[in-house]
């Protein structure tokens, strides 16, 4: 594809739109993972979390042809994202040393990179298709979307501090993304492709399950904390 040709520019526009449409998920997971950090580390986590997301997605895009050959990839990624969405709702001091909401910078970074890698499958497939093999387009598109993700993460973090209910909204978005990945798994086409009811039910079960389990864990933690005092 010739540089700056009409085809090149239209492909670049498509990639940017794909990145920006899916940037909301990135912003949410970065903001939620960073919310329990000290204020002087929050901005650092947002910037480096975004960098990590870009690197992970660029590497995944390079290997997209290989990734497409892995059976069950969408299913495994979706189930992994369900766990991430649930753990984001669990209080950070619940005693789990591997908790993704850890109050350390590296704990937050681990959550951000893992969640972005899991969520990035749809993004990678879309971007790779729009780029038509031109990896320079992928890199340019990702670089252009970085400021949007950083700004979005900062905005979400500020809103979470004022309105904690947004944490549950964010977890619901991640759960929806997870359900979509599971429903899109080719191995499960016979279950979901022919039945709208099954697809809707799968989304409802995953979202409700994550929110209810997270709420129960938070209430249990509050009760145990109250009993200890």
Automatic annotation (TrEMBL):
Protein family per UniProt: Belongs to the TerC family.
Cell compartments where the protein resides: Membrane
UniProt xrefs under PANTHER family: MEMBRANE BOUND PREDICTED REDOX MODULATOR, SLL1022 PROTEIN
Classification lineage: Bacteria, Pseudomonadati, Pseudomonadota, Betaproteobacteria, Burkholderiales
Domain of life (superkingdom): Bacteria
TM ranges: 6-33, 45-67, 73-90, 111-131, 137-158, 165-184, 196-214
Protein name: TerC family protein
Originating species: Piscinibacter terrae
GO CC list: membrane
Keyword Hydrolase applies: no
Membrane-topology descriptor: Multi-pass membrane protein
Keywords: Membrane, Transmembrane, Transmembrane helix
